[in-house]
Design goal:
By secondary structure, this protein is α+β, with helices and mostly antiparallel strands. The protein contains nine helices and five strands, in the order αααααααββββααβ. Helix 2 packs across helix 4. The radius of gyration is 23 Å and the shape is flat.
């Protein structure tokens, strides 16, 4: 149970703990408190009820939802973090309560700013996409007839497996011609097409991941990498003029149209 708890803590809170500098004993305490919850009958009943309500009885897929295991880790992290100042006091280290608690909160809490901004600007599955990725417009075509393997892999997918930059630079960006967003340019999208394993007929799970984004680089991007994966995500929550006071939409458009920036699909 302790191994499972440690795995969950790493999955749900590992990045936050690392960003906070791995406070001494916090990960271990969080894992121990999580393991205690996982071993209870109440947790077993709750997670079974959640899975029973959120997926088909024959499915083995994990629902995209906030489940009892993640809640257990979050509660354990908060309970363990609440004792840091007390533990420090017992060891002879006295700190200002307000500033310490506020600092710990900023380092350990789940920041929702990126998710909120993404949802505010997200267009649910647009049909417009760069030419080399046009094959991905139809979601999981192989799922229509599981006995027919002619749709797997999707026609056109093999040609883009090793493609890291779209030919044509900025000219390869997809442009919206119709609908309420006519005139827009699609600077990026990300999606996955997945089907779980089947028993009758016996088929393995299948998964396609597609991502395209505008990227400015000083050299060839590493093969197999994703755009912006080396930058802190909080960059997306800062307004452009806060990074460069001289930046405005006209100047950004001029910069992007003057070069041959790398556009990366994976």
């Amino acid at each position: 149970m302790h191994a499972a708890a440690g795995h969950l803590v790493e999955m749900y809170a590992g990045k936050r703990l690392a960003a906070a500098g791995e406070p001494t004993g916090l990960r271990e305490s969080t894992s121990a408190l999580t393991a205690t919850v996982l071993s209870t009958d109440a947790f077993e009943r709750l997670i079974r009820a959640q899975l029973g309500q959120l997926r088909h009885p024959s499915s083995r897929a994990i629902p995209d939802a906030y489940l009892a295991d993640e809640a257990a880790v979050e509660d354990a992290l908060q309970r363990a973090a609440a004792g840091i100042r007390t533990a420090m006091a017992k060891a002879g280290h006295l700190v200002d309560a307000l500033s310490f608690e506020r600092g710990a909160l900023l380092r350990l809490h789940e920041d929702s700013r990126l998710a909120v901004r993404a949802e505010l600007t997200r267009v649910p599955r647009p049909s417009t996409r760069p030419g080399p990725l046009a094959w991905s417009v139809t979601p999981a075509p192989w799922a229509t007839d599981p006995r027919d393997d002619s749709s797997w892999p999707p026609p056109g997918a093999d040609a883009t497996v090793g493609l890291r930059s779209l030919p044509g630079g900025c000219a390869a960006l997809a442009h919206v011609e119709h609908g309420p967003r006519a005139g827009w340019t699609q600077i990026g999208f990300i999606e996955s097409h997945s089907t779980p394993p089947r028993r009758y007929p016996d088929l393995a799970g299948r998964h396609v991941f597609v991502a395209s984004a505008l990227e400015i680089a000083d050299g060839e991007p590493p093969e197999g990498s994703l755009p912006f994966t080396s930058l802190p995500w909080r960059l997306w929550t800062v307004l452009p003029h806060q990074i460069d006071p001289s930046m405005n939409p006209e100047r950004a458009a001029a910069i992007l149209s003057s070069g041959d920036q790398a556009l990366g699909p994976v």
